[in-house]
Write a structure and sequence with these properties.
The complex is a heterodimer of chains A (121) and B (198). With 121 residues, chain A is mainly beta. Chain A has no helices and 10 strands. Chain A has one domain: Thiol:disulfide interchange protein DsbD, N-terminal domain (Immunoglobulin-like, Sandwich). In chain A, strand 5 and strand 6 form a beta hairpin. Chain B is an alpha/beta fold and 198 residues long. Chain B contains 4 helices and 8 strands. Classes of the chains: A mainly beta (121), B alpha/beta (198). At the A-B interface, strand 1, strand 8, strand 9 and strand 10 of A face strand 1 and helix 1 of B.
Amino acid sequence: MKRGVSAEAKIAVSVQPGFHVNSNTPSDAYLIPLKLTWVPDGALEPGAVVFPKPQMEKYEFSDKPLSVFTGDFELTAKFKVPASASQGPGIMLGKLRYQACNNNSCFPPKTVEVRLSYQVQ
Amino acid sequence: MSALRLGTVLATGVLVGCVIYWGWPAKPARAASLKPDGERHAAPDFALKDADGKTVRLSDYKGKVVLLDFWATYCGPCKIEIPWFMDFERKHKDQGFSVLGVSMDDDGWDAVKPFVNDVGINYRIMVGNDSTADMFGGIEALPTTFLIDRDGKIAAVHVGLTSKSDFENAIEQLLQTPAHSAGGAGRVSLPAELVGAR
């Protein structure tokens, strides 16, 4: 990518059948949202993360529908390439934090590493 | 996965997509049933602080039936069970029964105290950690609830949301069983002179 432009990365996420993860805007203050953060590396400037529209699903253990993601979905991470960015390859490291449940149990929040390779021209 | 170069005609470009795949194998909630006496093992003794900063040891409850609940404020199924456990505490506390809740919230008391106050939980709550979970063989899912008999042995483990009646039946059964005298809280030590000791 050229310096001085904006860029996007699509991050494909897949949740196993039978499970759901809270969306980035969960319906209860106690729920842990899906969150993607980046470790700035000096080359790319992280911008907004665009999440898909969540599903509102009713579960046996909840009085009201929950804002969740299930199955396959994509996040769009936006970046800016500063004019001063060094040319060459790089890897942008990110952390995706999520908290999943199935119909009768919940699991501790987890963080997975996201690695984005890029090339500044 | 190799990086993609952006074309110059594009104002924005797609870098690289990476697939993140996660999940846990789904485990069905176990039906409530008590292990036969001979198959029960001693519950690990932990020492954790409650909301008042007092140390709670499981061994303090020897002689009582204990429902030990691992939960978290973000756990919907846990929050279904908590009112049941409050009922059990009210109903059975004078019969030698106690509920103990161990929160596994990463945010600790910052998350737990407001929730406990909101709900009005009437039993002791502690904040646990990975070490606590490891003592119990690793707590993978919440809620995980142990029923501990009067001898301090694990009589049942429930993983996931379980029915209130299943818990109630098991608790009542355990309450009817006194502690065993050998090595348990039911042991009575007689003064030496009464047993003819010299």
